[in-house]
Amino acid sequence: MHRPYLYCLFLLLTCLVLSCVQVIGPEDYVAPQRPPTNPGNGGLPPQQQPTPQKRLFISNGQVRLGIDLNAGGAITYLSEASSSVNMVNNVDLGRQIQTSLYAGPIPYVINGKQPVPQWRTLGWNPVQTGDYYNNPARVVSYQQGETTLYVKTVPLIWPLFNEPAECVMEHWIELKENRVHVRCRFAVNRPDTTQYEARTQESPCVYLNGPYYRMIGYTGLQPFTNAPVSEFTEAGVTNRYSTENWIGLFNEQGRGVGLYRPNEFRYRSSFMGNSRTSGEYDFSSGYVNAEDFLLIDHNGQYEFDYTLILGSITDVRQYVYSQPRPARVPNYRFVNDRQGWYYSNATDSGWPIRNELNIRWSRVDTSKVNFRVSSPLVFWQATEVPRIYIQAAFQTRSTTARFSWRKPDEVDFYAINGRFIDFPIIGDGQYRTYEINLNGVPGWEGVIKQISLDPTPGQEPFEKGSTLRLRSVTASAP
Which portions of the sequence form the region Disordered (predicted)? Predict the structure, then answer.
């Protein structure tokens, strides 16, 4: 699952040096990716030999799938039923098809264990299959049916030696025709109650063997119209704004696996190595993931689901097109979760969410400029969202707040004309509905990729106790 690799990182750093300085917005920062071997470990424990496989298989006549109980119960085998060739890459315990989570602190040190030096920046990083040293994660329980599997796992912290994570992952797997549907639930129980900033997750990651080198998806602005797909050629880890909510890896003949997550627009792709004929224990591999931003609470519980579609690019699109379309307008009501919203340099009152987001409306670190409350990525036509209604209670001396947005080709929010509107607020702590009329506002046009709430420059609220309680953000009056 994990992070493409030292080879790709070396090429990326070389390109950066040659091109002097490249500006990367924090919203689209590409986290470092993990190497598959241990090149000089500075006295740290050596990598272990992989534990022998203990695979369970299910099949439905179109798909054959296997999980490995000696690899955290991750998917380690996948093929069309007519083939005996495994598509999944298993060169180490960071590949496979699996879940990997990310949170602070950075670096993450516990029980006297230091992270492997090159991956100190990964922080708290539970990996379903195991750790950097090839120690396998522990399967707590499992069940197997004819076309279903269930597995419960205590993952390991990737950069540490044999350190169980303070969370439990559960995966429900079901075969349906040419598809694999997976539901994941994870529960966190960390003694460290600090609320760390949201990070992108690998939910899931998919690593297929060298023949599946073609990285394909749709990132255009006419989704669900059968417009031509894009084939990505960058080998390095690259963010994708996938407007049809899928991405895939395919072979020379155009067959492979598509990854679909409902309402998710943020994906990544990469290819590592240089072989297009390699097998499951070779280095070369294609990589895609779905990578939502997620604030992981010390006591949080979270769920997501995804579907793997086996077959041609047409097969993948036919399935995706048959599913409910993503929302075309905002309809966020914060009843029992954050609805994918997250914060930069801000915190809220934590888990569980009870009918509102109770957000500290001031910078956690006053030395940093950024301060933002952000939505997940979206795909809205501005003409379909002439007004936005924000049901909120501000407790602050500020008299205005800022509503910002960004367009598909923008890697971050920009404080430029045509990307924000300031609106008056009343800071007495009482709930009100703020109507933001976007009709005729310069820049509110075409496709909208993301929205946020920010303090108005010059009115940043530094006073203690300043809060934003947010109940809903909708396209119609609540």
Answer: 31-52
- Residue pLDDT, tens place only, 178-219: 999 999 999 999 999 999 999 999 999 999 999 999 999 999
Among 36, 15, 28, 42, smallest CA distance to 90 is for 36
Q: Bridge partners of 230? A: 217
DSSP state of 121: G
Task: Give the tokens for residue 91.
Answer: 């060169």
Whether the CB-CB separation of 371 and 362 falls below 8 Å is answered with yes
- Looking at the domain 6-322, which fold is it? Beta-galactosidase; Chain A, domain 5 (2.70.98)
Separation between Cα atoms, residue 392 and residue 414, nearest integer Å: 24
Query: Rounded to 5 degrees, what angle do the CA atoms 447, 449, 455 make?
Result: 120
CB-CB neighbours of 63 under 10 Å: 22
Query: What's the CATH number for 331-474?
Result: 2.60.120.430
Pair of tokens at residue 459? 């009115």
- From the list 195, 422, 208, the residue with the least C-alpha distance to 297 is 195
**Closest listed residue to residue 125, CA positions, set 183, 188, 206:** 188
In this structure, what DSSP letter does residue 242 have?
-
* Of the candidates 267, 271, 270, 269, the residue with the CA atom closest to the CA atom of residue 293: 267
3-state secondary structure (DSSP) of residue 324: coil
Q: Which two tokens stand for residue 345?
A: 């340099």
Tokens of residue 189, six digits:
């129980």
Could you tell me the pTM of the whole model?
0.91
At 454, list the tokens: 């920010």
Q: How far apart are CA 91 and CA 35, in angstroms?
A: 11
Q: How far apart are the first and last CA of the chain?
A: 41
Residue 163: which of 187, 139, 133 has the closest Cα? 133
Residue ranges of domains in the chain: 6-322, 331-474
Phi, psi of 301 (to 5 degrees): -130, 135
For residue range 336-360, what is the model confidence (pLDDT) as tens digits? 999 999 999 999 999 999 999 999 9
Contact 241, 411 (CB under 8 A): no
Overall size of the chain counted in residues: 478
User: Can you tell me the distance from the alpha carbon of 337 to that of 349, in angstroms, rounded to the nearest whole number?
Assistant: 12
Q: How many whole angstroms from its chain centre is CA 390?
A: 26
Give the phi and the psi of residue 289 in degrees, each rounded to 5: -150, 165
Q: How far is CA 239 from the centre of its chain?
A: 10
d(CA 242, CA 316): 14
